[in-house]
Amino acid sequence: MAATEREEGTERKPITKAEILPPIINLKPLNFFFDVNRAMSIWPITFGLACCAIEMMSVSMARFDIARFGAEVFRPSARQADLMMVTGTVSKKMAPALVRLYEQMPAPKYVMACGNCAISGGPFKFENQYGIVEGVDNLVPVDVYVPGCPPRPEAILEGVFAIQEKILGIRFWPRPEEIPSPLAEPKKPKAAPDKAESAKA
Amino acid sequence: MELTIANFVQIVIACLLIIALMVGNAVIMVYIERKAAGFIQRRPGPYEVGPRGTIQAICDSMKLLGKQLFIPGNVDWLLYFLAPVMAFLPVLLLFLPIPFGKYLVALKVDDGILLILAFAGLGVISNILAGWASNNKYGLLGAARAVAQSVAYEIPMIMALLAVVFMAGSLNLSEIVERQGTWPWQWNIVFQPLACFIYFVSLVGETNRAPFDLPEAESELTAGFHTEYSGMGFALFFLSEYANMLLVSFVCATFFLGGYKGPILDGFWWTFIKAYAVMCLIVWLRWTFPRVRFDQLLNINWKWLLPLSILNLWVTAIVLKFIE
């Protein structure tokens, strides 16, 4: 099969904007209040596809601990989850299950494409490749792309912050470039650690 | 007890206070549970949302309030919406006869423990309704497990409580507390250690908590009976789970730990301290032990707890007869 030919049903469809009705009660402070709460409790669905899922597990455990930002409640049921971390290679066999899980999640829902495979197919993008979906954005709308092969747990945390920033327009936590690096000042190696890093203490 | 206006006002005020207690308890316990999980797994747990993560549970509940209301296809919608409410409402009634303090009792009845044990069964019905109505195979399997487990664990629980009732000679919860002394060695846990142990194990089984959380086992049943519930339905199930935990902890404190009596200054604070100590023990258990298999769960109950509780009851009765 030639690489340019796609199988039936996997053509890249034109992205259409969903029709969103204006809310009945549209008060700015109230919306902001709910948005803050949404941003502060992003519950991911227990869903891993490949090796990036190991990093997802790592980010929920000691050292990195996504629980600090209230996002450690991995819900097994899609009905109770907010965030779908697509961690790993999406094979064409897995694609229907992924789309079904996405459709089962109730409305304020976010998708994070973790790792190069989920972003673009990564190392599996070559001629005569037949089994891999090249980018999960062919299947579901993606909010945040986290590059890496696999991404570091810090990068996944940064992806969660990006989703929070997308919900709110505000970033609560300091940006990595704002934090003085301990390597820049060799005399004071312990000076000004990351707020998130120091939280472990 | 005849129903006068004063009694009616008292019960209404008590119900409002109990709702406040249930909601406050859920908020505090979610925080304690997640912090305890973090502590046991050597990570900080909720930290950044509010000072030391204290408003995390409030954020979660507000987010659940704002989630899409969802009705899956082919659902019995009346039962689907009734089930979370039914899980929540009977707990209100169950708190009424609990003696928080000497005079802090909402409903002084002579057979308080009978009332609690009779209406505690309604919680199981809500689980069946939730599993049945949501038209989901995992939901139905979880509901079936919840029924098998609750029915099994209710029996040793009642037997263990009955041994204490034999000693006190009364079903009145205030009376049972009055029979115990102020010091720890005068509490029923010293006279009835086996009953206390059996009660504690069945309490974990009754409230569907780990290691006996078979109805919600993630690895095999996604989320059990509340698989199809999103947003507030799920929040109500969560609320009732924590309220049930609190209730059984209060019963444990009343029956075995001397209720509102303590070494210094008797009062309702002792009931709360003891009940929350039991709650913390349950949380500790959850994050320490792995989940048991379903046959192991029923074997523990039918082969160990039930014969032991019957033996305990029998010995108690004989000893009481001889002391007479």
Helix content of chain A: 25-40%
Rg from Cα of chain A: 19 Å
Question: Based on DSSP secondary structure assignment, what is the total number of beta strands of chain B?
Answer: 0
Q: Give the number of DSSP strands of chain A.
A: 3
Most extensive interface:
A-B, 32 and 34 residues
Number of individual domains of chain B: 1
Q: The biggest beta sheet of chain B, please?
A: none
First-to-last CA distance of chain B: 32 Å
Main features:
heterodimer; A: 201 residues; mainly alpha; Rossmann fold; three-stranded parallel beta sheet; 6 helices; 28% helix; B: 324 residues; globular
Description:
The complex is a heterodimer of chains A (201) and B (324). With 201 residues, chain A is mainly α. Chain A has one domain (28-170): Rossmann fold, CATH 3.40.50. Helices cover 28% and strands 6% of the residues of chain A. Chain A contains six helices and three strands; from the N terminus they run ααβαβαβαα. Chain A has helices at residues 28-40, 52-59, 95-104, 115-120, 153-168, 195-198, and strands at residues 83-87, 110-114, 144-146. A three-stranded parallel sheet of chain A has the order 1-2-3. In chain A, helix 1 runs antiparallel to helix 5 and helix 2 (52-59) packs across helix 5 (153-168). Chain A is globular, with a radius of gyration of 19 Å. The model of chain A has no long low-confidence stretch (mean pLDDT 81). Chain B is mostly helical. Chain B has one domain. Chain B is 68% helix and 0% strand. Chain B has 13 helices and no strands. In chain B, helix 3 packs antiparallel against helix 5 (122-133) and helix 6 (137-168) packs parallel to helix 13 (294-323). Chain B is globular and about 65 Å long. Chain B starts with a helix and ends with a helix. The interface between A and B is medium-sized, with 32 and 34 residues.
